[in-house]
Amino acid sequence: MGPSGKKDDSGLSTTHMLHIVFYFQVHQPYRLRPYSVLDIGQNLNFFDEDLNRAVIRKVGEKCYLPANQLIKELIERYEGAFKVAYSITGVVIEQFRAYYPEVLDSFKELARTGCVEFLGETYYHSLAFQFDKAEFLSQIRMHRKLMMDEFGFRPVVFRNTELIYQDQLADSLEEEEGFQVILAEGAEKILKWRSPLYAYRTYNHRFFLLLKYYSLADDIAFRFSNRAWSEFPLTTEKFIYWLSKLSLVEKGRRNLFVNLFMDYETFGEHQWKETGIFEFMRHLPEKVFDSPNLSFAWPSDVPQMMDYSPEALSYPQPVSWADTERDLSAWLENDLQFNACETYYEILSEIQSRGRSDLLEIARKLSTSDHFYYMCTKYFQDGDVHKYFSPYQSPEQAYMFYMNALAGLRERL
Amino acid sequence: MKVLLLTWEFPPFISGGMGMACYGLIKALLSMGVEVDLVLPTTEDVYFPLRSVGDTETLPMDYLDPTQKNKPLPSRELALVERLRLVGLPVFPDSYATPALRQGFDKTMEEVIRSLQRGLARDLDSVRLSLESGGEIFKKSQVFAGRLAQYARRLQCDVIHVHDWLTYPAGILLKVLMGRPLVAHMHATEFDRAGGVGDERIHHIEYAGLTAADRVIAVSQYTAQMIIDRYRTDPGKIRVVHNAFSISKMSEKKQRIFKEPLVLFLGRITLQKGPDYFVEVAKRVLAHRSDVRFVVAGSGDMFSKIIKGTAARRLKDRVLFTGFLNRDQVEEILTSTDIFVLPSVSEPFGIVPLEAMAYGAVAIISKQSGVSEVIHNAYRVDFWDIEKTAEIILDLLKDPKKRKEMARLGQEEVMKIEWDQAAKKMIQVYQQLTCST
Questions:
Q1: A298, B108, B274, B424: which has the fewest C-beta neighbours closer than 10 Å?
Q2: Do B198 and B270 have their domain in common?
Q3: A vs B: CB pairs below 8 A
Q4: Are residues B387 and B431 in the same domain?
């Protein structure tokens, strides 16, 4: 753990460290094809294989492969002092296997360096926690097994779909052994006067909480190439300057964590290669190591690094990382979404209670939160983002195909 | 006998019943030896000279202008849809214009106006004003009329037969320019389409067309009455010619999509067709039993409202949607339908219930429809009476025997309805007009 550029022995007292915690979300849903009422009697081919393959190939080409290559180079150059964490869903790994095995191989290579951490989440990137606690835990177990099988890694850090977190989740997660840390959004409505730079505890004191520092994370993920942004262009130097300033909030010696959580597709897909996003990342570690009180950490480092007793923080309502509301409204706000979700969990429990394991896998692919995201009708500022991600012409159309698929499932019961 | 027949839609590109009605009628006319020169809203100056029944499937085409005869036409080797696309026939005919299509265009078309002013009085002037004031759809109607006016002296026919308002301006012009009798067919008035009053400019055009026509064909008694009430058209020149239906195949056995019975709404999802009543009926039925599926088939301006309405009522996956269906898909879903509901607020005729019955479905039809005049083995209900409709469906679900018997009677009855009957009436009309002129 002796990072090359570090100057701990310089004589200048490093009162405390600001640890940069990168976590990248890797996920792609199984998008539905225009599944029609007339298909119901005929087939259960819900998914648009051509489209899903095309997306995996495209994003693999533009993002996953080059970004993994870069991360690997940085890990090797700094001999492990550069640290990142990934949360990779089960559904995206299945699709890598089917459509782009080289991408999965490159993640395995990263795993072999021993310098990346893998987080636990629901296998299907689902909203199961809101509807079915048993299913929630099953999907977490499936995902843990997958992480072990693919990467030989046992996650100790948990992040729920879309960073959705509320107090009861900490209670549910107690039933699953081995988790120590949960990631959540650093929303002002929860933090109030507090800073997201400190680690916290869940309201039941069972887990550490790390909170996304969303303004800085979103500077990279959303605003990096935005020419209308007053801080454009975002250089590595500028970013490091902001980070150094942050560390001033601590007057004592307590460790700080700046949690930069974002979609991995930020690199090369949301922000194209031409924007310089890869170069930004390539130069970040050297600048970090040049700064006396900056370093990188994994989320799982936090318990060992705790040099203070964290305060417990309560999330009485669900908080997510999506849209300006940072709540569930991207997936569960309008009638289309509620009717679809409620019907889904009704059918899922039918399938489970009747022991129809032949239908379970295909049914679970319908639990992915993206299906409900496409039905979002908040067509204001956030609507643009929803539209960008949706393969359908309208929320109504997304709903129509989804409900037909549910009816197709029910028909097989 | 040669008829110059103008219509806005014809299979394979149809958006409503008018296309299928023209198809069935023309086929029967051809089988009785009538020659039909069909004109559609193509962008190229072509028409379709139909001489034998088979021509309705292949649609042979030719240029309106004989001097263009050397210009190559789309090769007959090509598939029909491809040939139609090459001459610019819209895949989704705008016979039922959305409000957006009616707005925003303000340009005159000299030729039409000049022709229109040739001695014709106030009615025609109002047509001109309506066309000029209108949006995209009026412009299309205007272009269509302008083109036919341009070629009027070269066209030959015994009778001009126009279908619905979009072709009326052309019909009036041709009558003047060719000196031939005009038959105006009314498949739907603006009052029906709008489910209320509708667009005043279209009223003017419909009024002018009906007034200029030597004979007016109403698709039902209901429509004849509407024409008389709304436009004060001389009842003496109105003839009622009921529609029939054409289906491509007769399946002996019902197909199934669901194990449970299927109740179908099929039509444009728009105020006129009453899809909102259908959803209310579904809600009432589903409150009593869940072993039934409701399907809303079609597209239209109320799609979003209706689909959100079913979600708001939490009707789960018991009410499903199909979006727009092509003709083959329409027949496929009809073969799987057990109960067909036509809750139209105002339906001049309504061919689909006949098709559904031919495929063995029990029909529940709005009393405010033309089709209710021609069939007896179906339930007739006021479109607004959701309680009654729900009661009938629940009763049919409870008693499958009764459902089967009703379906059988209905099937037997509709099989006697044929386009030949309609064609014979049309030929009589043509003959009367050609003898007297």
A1: B108
A2: no
A3: 74
A4: no
B227 and B129 share one domain:
yes
Same structural domain, A265 and A364: no
> For A351-385, what is the HEC assignment?
HHHCCCHHHHHHHHHCCECHHHHCCCCCCCCCHHH
Last residue of a domain, one of A313, A347, A376: A313
State pTM to two decimals.
Answer: 0.90
Cβ-Cβ contacts under 8 Å, B255 against chain A: 41
pLDDT tens-digit series, residues A38-80: 999 899 999 999 999 999 999 999 999 999 999 999 999 999 9
Specify if B383 maps to a domain: yes
Model confidence at A9, pLDDT cuts 50, 70, 90, reads: very low
pLDDT digits (tens, 9 = 90+) for A206-232: 999 999 999 999 999 999 999 999 999
Q: Contacts of residue B323 in chain A, CB cutoff 8 Å? A: 34, 36, 397, 400
Number of domains in chain B: 2
CB–CB of B297 and A347 under 8 A?
no
| A4 within a domain of the structure (yes/no) | no
Within-domain flag for A389: yes
CA-only gyration radius of chain B, Å: 22
Nearest chain A residue (CA) to B315: A339
Tokens 């819900």, residue located: A46
Q: Look up the domain containing B280 and give its range.
A: 262-414
Q: Is residue A1 part of a domain?
A: no
Q: From the candidates B257, B314, B317, B321, which should be mutated to test the interface with A, based on the most A CB atoms within 10 A?
A: B317
Catalytic residue numbers of A read: 162
Q: What is the pLDDT of residue A267?
A: 97
pLDDT confidence of B77, banded at 50, 70, 90?
confident
Q: Residue A366: which domain range?
A: 335-411
How many Å lie between the alpha carbon of B140 and the closest alpha carbon of chain A?
27
**Are residues A391 and A48 in contact, defined by beta-carbon separation less than 8 angstroms?**
yes
Phi-psi region of B108 (alpha: psi -120 to 50; beta: other; left: phi over 0): beta
DSSP string, B51-77: -STTHHHH---EESSGGGTTSPPPPTT
- Cβ neighbours of A404 in B, within 8 Å: 317, 320-321
Peptide bond into A316 cis (omega under 30): no
Q: Give the pLDDT score at A5.
A: 38
What is the model's pLDDT at position B173?
87
Mutant choice from A37, A399, A406 vs B, greatest count of B C-beta within 10 A: A37
Tens of pLDDT along B197-231?
889 999 999 999 999 999 999 999 999 999 999 99
The predicted complex's ipTM stands at 0.90
| B345 and B432 inside one domain | no
Give the mean pLDDT of A232-249.
92
Percentage of chain A beyond pLDDT 70 is 94
DSSP string, A110-143: HHHTT-EEE-B--TT-B-HHHH-HHHHHHHHHHH
Q: Are residues A226 and A263 in the same domain?
A: yes
Mark whether B10 and B44 lie in a shared domain. Answer: yes
What is the pLDDT at residue B119?
A: 43
- CATH assignment of the domain containing A212: 3.20.110.20
A247 with A354, same domain: the answer is no
